[in-house]
Amino acid sequence: MFVRALLLCLCLLLAGLSPAHAHMGSVLPEHVTYVAIGDSVSAGWGSPPVNGSRLNGYVSHLHRQLLLRGSSDLHNLGIPGLTSGQFLFLLEHWPELSQTIKKADLITLSVGGNDIIWTDHQSPGDVAKMREALTKYEENIEKILTDVRQLNEDARLFVLEVYNPFPVDDARHAQLAEWVIWVNESLAAAANQHDASVVPTASLFLKHENEYVNLKQNDIHPNNEGHTRIAEQISHALFGKFIPLLVQGDMNPTLLLDGKPKQLHAGLLYENGTVYVAADQLRQLYGPETIRQLRTRIGALWLRMNGKFVKLPSPVLLYGSEPYLPIRAVSESLGAKVYWVEDSRTINIVTRKDPAK
Description:
By secondary structure, the chain is α/β, with parallel strands linked by helices. Helices cover 39% and strands 20% of the residues. The protein has two domains: 2-239, 3-Layer(aba) Sandwich (Rossmann fold); 254-350, Copper Amine Oxidase, Chain A, domain 1 (2-Layer Sandwich), CATH 3.30.457. The protein has helices spanning 2-15, 40-43, 58-67, 84-93, 95-102, 113-122, 127-151, 171-193, 201-205, 209-212, 224-239, 282-286, 327-333, and strands at 31-38, 71-78, 106-110, 156-160, 197-199, 254-257, 260-261, 269-271, 274-278, 294-295, 302-305, 308-311, 317-319, 322-326, 337-341, 346-350. It starts with a helix and ends in a 7-residue tail after the last strand. Residues 1-22 form the signal peptide. This is GDSL-type esterase/lipase family protein. Residues 36-228 form the SGNH hydrolase-type esterase domain.
């Protein structure tokens, strides 16, 4: 085991950078096609469903980070229970998978945990069978990354380490430790050869298993906190920061100004797919020096701001004796960019040139 750990460290040293920051490729485009591939971790398992969807898995978290900074399409092709061999089969026989990978600007991959799980399930305690399976995994992960790069040589590519789900003081941790190191060693070596960044999930979860894994539900998948930590690692590698956006049922709209939470005396209103702000809160948001004069009326599809006529996409509303205006139209008329994240009901108004900072 010591030799494998040493080899893993050498692979990372040869890469010249820490695992999650090994790739220094081109900046993502303004519109990002994000493709998540792999097993149940990519599918978001372990995070409780919200309105029937796993909106707090690491993939959804990362997609929201993209939406805060521009537009993005998400294709989540995570399949629970998928092994590396099964993934290779799909890569060769499922045309839609290959075509989707070709179009991606950003790819994340989680695969390897089920190679351990299924081998142990079929041959419990059989060390020879496990070594055979993980030797095959070495070949598979190399072939997977080769094929992905042949399909798409330019996308930012992140591969997740396999983590040990059990605490260090649990006997099962020691039983799995060698196999987890083996998988991650193989993954790091392949990633180094194919311009991929390794997300250090194993070290991230180590000694935090009770915090990040659904062990209380007798489940080895990451919980909400675990999925958040994974997304945070990737977001920091991409943008240098992470803005937590946890999705819950029946949420009120949240306002961010240049990526930072902004509290208004009167909350935002979400009506018929449009976010509204109270007219008297605009000066609190932008400052009285920016909005010197504002005139409109209830039901109007226009307003006059600082002497400028602004057309509105929906009429001015009356709510709680206050007129409410569509916040996107007002903000864009002031030269700001506006990004809306539907599932977390978050609106990010960007007034600076670099929305990622």
